[in-house]
Amino acid sequence: MTVSTLVRHSPLEDWAPRFAALEPAVVLAERPFLAQLTLRVAPGQHSAVSTALGCPLPERPCTATAGAGLDVLWLGPDEYLVLGAPGTESALLSLVDGLCRSAVDTSAQRTTVDLSGPHARDVLAHGCAVDLHPLSSPPGTCVQTLLARAGVVLVARGGDAFTVLVRSSFAGYLAAWLVDAATEYVGES
């Protein structure tokens, strides 16, 4: 009897050499397999959920919070996306059990790309209608938008650093677009 072992592959695992060729003008790195929970939280439960997670839920639209190794992104009036370390999905679900209208493990839905460097904002501006100037999108800004016609969640981290969450099925397309958009800045600093 032959026993086969499944090997998990990230959507962008083969892109590292192409990403590295863009540095230092633009630094791209996939953070695969993050735990991702989509929570629907009833009014009056925000404090209980924040306490259970050890990280406050964002109080204002289009913002993100961080704490206890988690990021919590505001997606809608009662909808949040919790990001945690790979493999922590079950533990996170148990923390919020019974506190939310719904808590769903959506980890396999998206991959995460960190984008930074002196031309990161320029690259994003090629395909995103959101004003990413630090005065308009200060650190902690979180928006659902289109980037090169792909639906993404975009988080401004501060300085020239951003996190882009994209559906796994669109990850290759978006990676190709990012590499193409960044190529003009290679050699500049």
UniProtKB/TrEMBL annotation:
Pfam families: SoxG. It comes from the Bacteria. This is Sarcosine oxidase subunit gamma family protein.
